[in-house]
Amino acid sequence: MGIADRKERDKEELREKILHAAKDLFLIKGFEKTSIRNIADQIEYSPGIIYHYFRDKNEIFHALHQEGFRQLMAKMSVLASVRNPIERLKAMGSIYVSFALENPDMYDLMFIKEAPIDHVIDLEHDDWKEGGGTFNFLRGTVQESINLGYFKGHDPEALSYMIWSVVHGMVSLSIRKRCDVVLASRKDSIVSDALDEFYKIIDRL
Amino acid sequence: MGIADRKERDKEELREKILHAAKDLFLIKGFEKTSIRNIADQIEYSPGIIYHYFRDKNEIFHALHQEGFRQLMAKMSVLASVRNPIERLKAMGSIYVSFALENPDMYDLMFIKEAPIDHVIDLEHDDWKEGGGTFNFLRGTVQESINLGYFKGHDPEALSYMIWSVVHGMVSLSIRKRCDVVLASRKDSIVSDALDEFYKIIDRL
DNA sequence: TTGGATTATTAAACAGTGTTTAATTATTTT
DNA sequence: AAAATAATTAAACACTGTTTAATAATCCAA
């Protein structure tokens, strides 16, 4: 079935081209300001073609969303070798924050934008659960820490959510420029400074 | 100058009507999905009139943004009577979170949406600074706590940003439905559970 | 009270959006 | 080579924020 295969590959190729163009444009102009026509112009096809590869603009969103999670998980995977769960926890925080600050638009897409999460819930729920996912990695690390005697009296799941909230809060306030108003002078360092404050607290528990 | 006054009042009245309609619609449909024409329909005027009262859609955003901050600050003001800064800190967290969960769309507008923050920075910077503002209230409370011997070795400003990040992170992940995917079973209670975890940590410092 | 200036309001248009439709071109199968 | 199928497009639809010029309403001075 070599011919069918090649056809399949050709189709996949154009799909990737659309996705690539979409990502490029969105990193420059932002997601909502990137139009279907912009993407079509970029790949030198007519706008209509995009609807043969994606149901709507949200499905492009969703595909990029998945790619972002693959990237983040790849960055996290180096932590498998860190034995001490508290050390791993802190390293996770640093990786999470640096991923967000180095790829603010991708982070925005993954964790801030409202777009089609309903869609994501349906389609990605299984991926999340079986694939482990970043949150389960965090929850596991917290559980390990508790097993070693840290975080006494804490609920592992709620504590994990709190920890996620700290790092997400820091980077999302920064990305959406909410600290510029109130912390203009140190807006470039405040996130890493605040992360250090959090590490100090962890060390004292 | 009674006539000029009345004219002024009439103008103000329509301005308020636009704002009211905009807020109503936006609470139902969301901000981006509320169009100028929708607002015009609601108040039974033509779309063009809105541009005689607001420069553009962002200026409506900005007006609602200010209203939200007035609301939040009003809720916070009851805390002036709480003497113990640690108690006040925790009460602030609870008020902040409940404000966000009770007015998710308003919170979204104030702290999550990207819209015209540049505009806000220019216009609102002074309000923020002199009027105190929520963040300065937090910073002051943290400073008071430090003066009383709490949070030893911490930088008050960075610590304040970290604390803000915790509560903002919790509610914004919830509002933007990022916990639904990963914590479906307890998505309604996770925010308050996580806040409790944070309080436990504060109590142990 | 009337006429002119000013102001408030509107209708219509512009350039853009996501999406759908039917028509066209290209490719594959018979 | 003809018929069937698939890929691609042009054109339209109903919407968006915003601007323009024209209209309607109001005010102010003579």
List the helices and strands and how they pair.
Two copies of one chain form a homodimer.
Chain A: H1 2-29, H2 36-43, H3 57-76, H4 85-102, H5 104-112, H6 117-130, H7 133-147, H8 156-175, H9 190-203
Helix pairs in contact in A: 1-2, 3-5, 4-5, 4-7, 4-8, 4-9, 7-8, 8-9
Chain B binds a DNA duplex (30 and 30 nucleotides) through helix 1.
Describe the structure.
The structure is a homodimer of 205-residue chains. Chain A folds into 2 domains: 1-54, Homeodomain-like (Arc Repressor Mutant, subunit A), CATH 1.10.10.60; 65-203, Tetracycline Repressor, domain 2 (Orthogonal Bundle). Residues 128-132 of chain A have low confidence and may be disordered. Chain A has 9 helices and no strands. Chain A is mainly α and 205 residues long. The first copy, chain A, has helices at 2-29, 36-43, 57-76, 85-102, 104-112, 117-130, 133-147, 156-175, 190-203. In chain A, α1 packs across α2. Chains A and B meet through α6, α7, α8 and α9 of A and α6, α7, α8 and α9 of B. Chain B binds a DNA duplex (30 and 30 nucleotides) through α1. Chains A, B: Residues 12-72 form the HTH tetR-type domain. Chains A, B: InterPro entries: Homeodomain-like_sf, HTH-type_Tx_Regulator, HTH_TetR, MT1864/Rv1816-like_C, Tet_transcr_reg_TetR-rel_C_sf. Chains A, B: Keywords: DNA-binding, Transcription, Transcription regulation. Chains A, B: GO terms for molecular function: DNA binding.
